[in-house]
């Protein structure tokens, strides 16, 4: 087996959290200057690029698919693992070639790496003209004019309030059927391995009415699925104090004087029964039975939960500062199974080779996987991030070879489990929302079932953006194959 790295592992599983290049484009009219924007990292970053494009559109920019053609090149970056940052540096080197023969082009670094490295990026990467952290996107027009005046421009202030609630994102690379809606920003957890609290700042929730409005607008434009995004959606909390003008509506939400995630789910589910709702990411310490019951109550809330465990060993979880134990986690899984049943999709994130992880700890991760049987997982080996709690407190003492071997064992087990879970679906009839042609052939369409599994089936007369009942006839570990009935 070849060496494993983040990129190819994630690549064949899904594009979530992937570090691979995504070129995003949209089309604006009656404009002159051109913006090329490329995004890395999690869905929140992709969602932010849509906010940045909206801000740039107001400045008269149109997006282009070609970096060569652009007046402004933005790269929206991720810092989650060292490899993610390496990919961005390589990409910047390629943009350097463009800058050589087109010195007037502005190159900007946005997102988490911008926040982590701040003005150091200008020194380290000589071609960078502009650096904007995740809470500084409204300032981009000012930063651009500083660059036009011949100055380098940096804004990496983190905010306690910014949610970009009033900005209508320009949907990039959209299939016109599924869209993401950011419901909160930042993270107040302090998982010891994680750089996100440093790059994204304090947790804050967005006004629920602006979320419902965005979902309703998407529905009227033909979208049929929204995914509510946050680093820890279960701690969503919005109160009238966060915005006094929301007070009147909030009081209708009964029991408490705030909108919880369960309330929010209900509000979005009521937009239209034909609009599917997904959400990510759930945190095992915060997910409540109320959320599970709300999921059960509304058929349009998809029966799928991404509940990252990270490790199956309580000792390691403790060092990771995840604030739950193996037993607590397994109780949450039991609650999901008892309220939502065996068919509810469950996925996870796993880190192999965290500081001090013994062979015994690793075996506990494998045995937890056997107990849960995840539908799929995003799997990584530990990459120390400067400034995090783990970097300060613990030694990154698991040998790289051992990390990779353990990761491979986790991946092999997951593949077996994905196949098993998919085989359970054989001969069942499932509702699928059609997202477009299958990757391989225009004679086939693909979409996802409620549990978030990709289903491929012959096209017949079916159309993108509609629901279809599909009988599952065959499967691989990654895909269900069926026929509409
Ligand atoms: N908010 C989400 C995770 C966001 S980061 C949550 O709490 O679950 C996505 C995933 O990247 C994490 O779940 C973790 O598995 C992985 N990850 C984060 N930091 C990492 C690091 N330093 N090394 C390896 N993987 C890491
Ligand atoms: Fe990182 Fe933990 Fe926050 Fe997730 S919950 S973003 S892993 S600190
Ligand atoms: Fe990466 Fe930042 Fe998301 S570090 S995973 S882009 S929050």
Task: Provide the gyration radius in Å.
Answer: 22 Å
- Give the second-level CATH assignment, the architecture of the largest domain: Alpha-Beta Horseshoe
Helix content: 25-40%
For the sheet with most strands, the description reads: 7 strands, mixed
For this structure, the quaternary state is single chain
Instruction: Using the coordinates above, name the CATH class of the largest domain.
Output: Alpha Beta
Mean pLDDT score, rounded? Answer: 91
Intertermini distance: 41 Å
Number of strands: 22
Low-pLDDT segments:
1-31, 244-252
Structural class: alpha/beta
Number of structurally distinct domains: 3
| CATH topology (level 3) name of the largest domain | pyruvate-formate lyase- activating enzyme
The CATH H-level homologous superfamily of the largest domain:
tm_1862 like domain
- What overall form do the CA principal axes indicate? globular
- Tally of helical segments: 16
Percentage of residues in DSSP E strands: 15-25%
Give structural notes.
The protein contains 16 helices and 22 strands. The chain is of the alpha/beta class and 485 residues long. The protein has 3 domains: 7-155, Methylthiotransferase, N-terminal domain (Rossmann fold, 3-Layer(aba) Sandwich); 178-423, pyruvate-formate lyase- activating enzyme (Alpha-Beta Horseshoe); 429-484, Beta Barrel (OB fold (Dihydrolipoamide Acetyltransferase, E2P)). Strands 1, 2, 3, 4, 5, 6 and 7 form a 7-stranded mixed sheet that branches. The protein is globular, with a radius of gyration of 22 Å.
